[in-house]
Amino acid sequence: MSDEATAETDEHRSLQGCEPRDTPGPAARVRNWWHDRGSGAAYDRLDGRLSAYCAEFGALLDELDRLEASRGGDEPAVDRDFVTHVETLLDKSARHLQHGHIDQAWVCFHAARRVDLYGYEAYDRLRDGESELVRERAVEIHRQATDRLTGWRREAVSDLLLDRSGQVRRDPSVHAVIRARYLVDEANQNNHAKRRYLQRQLRYLLGLGIVALTVFLFGVTQVNPFAASDVTLPTFVLYVPLVGALGAALFGVRSASKTATSTNVPQNFTPLGVVLARVFIGSLSAVALYFGLTAGVIDVVDGGTLTPALLLLVAFAAGYSERLAPQAVERVSGITGRTTPN
């Protein structure tokens, strides 16, 4: 290999965005943890992926250098503009990672993996058809789409990559493969956004539930509501919305893993906003039932005495059965989803 090619290879080994990153200190770890809402392993996972990818991409560039050198000639046989774009995306990914913006870092990393397909296309061209790296990537992408995608995205990937016989095209266009890869990445990012949305809801619900339970237990040690002689006293009434909020938080935790949400929900509602709405409606329902029972509008004991324990149980049940907030969120998201792309 010529000295020029060797120098060029050494340059590739220090790709922009692949420079060694300083290990985050305690302050940076706390900041990253906060930005990523408590996912402490997210930084290490992406940092490892970036490091491995940089080595793989550098090896691809080294192989392109070797093939070009074996052909001879003064003019480069491969346009290296794609390398600049990959470096820019890797640099952005590394910067987002250092600032704790894990989601943005993943988006840039996936974009870099799509652009590097131009490098695989160049490799196939230099090998004069002896390799089919682009087609191999197309086969991999199609299998991922078949396994993970549904609806129009799955059909679009098939239209881009398959021939009329239903097999992956022998010589697929690199632009079609990039577009198919984008559709798969977009679907994965949407699914990840939905999972993160529900995970954040769960954290907020657990936090509010712990706070409500702590306040309730502390209140019991000060003024025992179960021993109240008059259920209309303010010292007892204050427990009603508190117990309703506790019921709403418990039901929210139980149902969070079973909640189906569209990709429009994270765009239109914050997890904290939904959680506060659930807790507020649960508390309001508990108060409404309390007034209905004490006013005699609702009778659950057939004319018997309303005990403090019964009223608190009804308040908890009112909060626990709260479903209005999540249903309203999905309904509004469905309306806005008609004009918001998935």
UniProtKB/TrEMBL annotation:
Annotated spans, Disordered: 1-31
Keyword Membrane set for record: yes
Transmembrane stretches, start-end: 204-224, 236-257, 269-291, 303-321
Regions of compositional bias (Basic and acidic residues) in chain numbering: 9-22
Highest taxon of source: Archaea
Keywords: Membrane, Transmembrane, Transmembrane helix
Identification of the protein by name: Uncharacterized protein
Organism encoding this protein: Haloplanus rubicundus
